[in-house]
Amino acid sequence: MRVGIIKIFTALSILFFIGTLTAQSADKIESVPLINLEELEPTFEEDKDELENSNEVNLYQNNIESSDVENTHESNDKIYINITALDKITAKTSTIRLAIGEKNFFGPLEIKALKCQLSKSEESPDTVAYLQVKDLSNKDNNQVFLFNGWTFASSPTLQSIDHPVYDLWITGCENI
């Protein structure tokens, strides 16, 4: 009988202890003032104005280079690869027209096109391109290329270019 009384006393003391803890914890909850989201500063390292200016300069340079390439396109029969580039932070896309063997820059990425051709599949012909992409901001000596291989216009995720900020995919080729 003594063991039963000890068990009841222990259970009641545990229940009392839990009840006092929850009552004390309700007193400790404080309300936090609301934050105006429009006043928050961006959390990325670069200043917002500097980032927008650098993107505008890159887009301007790409437009100048693409217009120069269009002027030379009329006089020669080079093969060109059309690439769409996405900046995931600003959600801005750019179109890059790149001749085989030439390099172009999109942000810190150096893009070099080595080959472009139509696939030999009779069921569904597709444009494929061999690209080499380097991330010049990465100072790791072990990594030479961010991407080095074939990519497909119909399914860019089959061989995707893995970068946390930028995304590239081919849209087609000219003069094949």
List keywords for this structure.
single chain, 176 residues, alpha+beta, three-stranded antiparallel sheet, 31% strand
Could you describe the 3D structure shown?
With 176 residues, the protein is an alpha+beta fold. It has one domain (48-174). Helix content is 30%, strand content 31%. The protein is built from 2 helices and 7 strands; from the N terminus they run ααβββββββ. The protein has helices spanning 2-28, 48-73, and strands at 80-87, 92-99, 103-106, 109-118, 127-135, 147-152, 166-174. The strands form 2 sheets. It has a 4-stranded antiparallel sheet with strand order 3-4-5-6, with no helix packed on it. Strands 2-1-7 form a 3-stranded antiparallel sheet. A hairpin with an 8-residue loop joins strand 4 and strand 5 (127-135). The radius of gyration is 30 Å and the shape is elongated. Mean pLDDT is 75; it is low at 62-75.
Please specify the SSE layout and strand pairing.
Elements: H1 2-28, H2 48-73, E1 80-87, E2 92-99, E3 103-106, E4 109-118, E5 127-135, E6 147-152, E7 166-174
Antiparallel strand pairs: 1-2, 1-7, 3-4, 4-5, 5-6
